[in-house]
């Protein structure tokens, strides 16, 4: 004869309450950026700010870094699409050349070799409209990049005053590339 109490309460308690109730909502969301960074491009999730007052590279570098430490810096042109789109935006603003966060490793063998962006990646190749280093070949004098709206990137010393473009992408500057800045 079966016992009347056997098997009466098994599985009675509520089981399997929500697994992982909080979802991963913030993945790939744009970084939080200063409200002064009003320019966007369709090829990135970054925001950009043009500093229209002409100054030397170092002045702009310090200013961009200071807007939101660890997230803003001179524009780091990581892809061909970013370069081309930004150039189109700048062409409508009037000035002919803008400092960006593009740096050449010192003592590189040629004027177009070993260019990096401040966030650490190698600059896409084929984007120098003028790479002359003030000489027939590399002489280690022009190791910074300015984005020319008519002629892609130019290698420059950083001493001449130009406007600049800052970028907010949530990425910190790469210490090795920052160390290449003259
Ligand atoms: Ca970028
Ligand atoms: Ca150079
Ligand atoms: Ca040059």
List the helices and strands and how they pair.
Layout: E1 39-40, E2 47-55, H1 57-67, E3 72-74, H2 80-91, E4 97-104, E5 115-117, E6 128-130, E7 144-148, E8 152-156, E9 162-168, H3 175-178
Parallel strand pairs: 6-8
Antiparallel strand pairs: 1-2, 2-9, 3-9, 4-5, 4-7, 7-8
Number of structural units classed as domains: 1
H-E string: EEHEHEEEEEEH
* Major β-sheet strand ordering: 5-4-7-8-6
Q: Termini distance?
A: 93 Å
Q: Characterize the largest beta sheet: strand count, sense, and whether it forms a barrel.
A: 5 strands, mixed
What is the number of helical segments per DSSP (H or I, 4+ residues)?
A: 3
In the CATH scheme, the class would be Alpha Beta
Structural category: alpha+beta
Strand content range: 15-25%
Bound molecules: calcium ion
Number-wise, the strands total 9
The poorly predicted ranges are 1-6
Helicity level: 10-25%
CATH level-4 homologous superfamily? Mannose-Binding Protein A, subunit A
Mean pLDDT: 87
Radius of gyration computed on alpha carbons = 25 Å
Would you identify the CATH architecture?
Roll
Briefly note the CATH topology name: Mannose-Binding Protein A, Chain A
Give the overall form. globular
């Amino acid at each position: 004869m079966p016992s009347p109490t056997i098997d009466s309460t098994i599985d009675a308690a509520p089981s399997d309450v929500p697994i992982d109730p909080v979802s991963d909502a913030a993945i790939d969301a744009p970084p939080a950026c200063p409200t002064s960074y009003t320019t966007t491009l369709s090829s990135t999730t970054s925001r950009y700010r043009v500093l229209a007052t002409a100054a030397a590279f170092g002045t702009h570098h310090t200013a961009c870094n200071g807007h939101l430490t660890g997230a803003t810096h001179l524009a780091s042109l990581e892809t061909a699409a970013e370069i081309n789109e930004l150039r189109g935006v700048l062409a409508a603003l009037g000035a002919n050349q803008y400092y960006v966060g593009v740096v050449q490793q010192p003592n590189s063998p040629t004027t177009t070799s070993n260019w990096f962006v401040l966030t650490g990646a190698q600059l896409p190749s084929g984007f120098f409209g003028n790479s002359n280093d003030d000489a027939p070949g590399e002489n280690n004098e022009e190791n910074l990049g300015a984005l020319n709206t008519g002629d892609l990137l130019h290698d420059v010393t950083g001493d001449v005053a130009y406007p600049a473009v800052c970028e907010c992408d949530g990425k910190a500057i790469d210490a090795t590339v920052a160390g290449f800045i003259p």
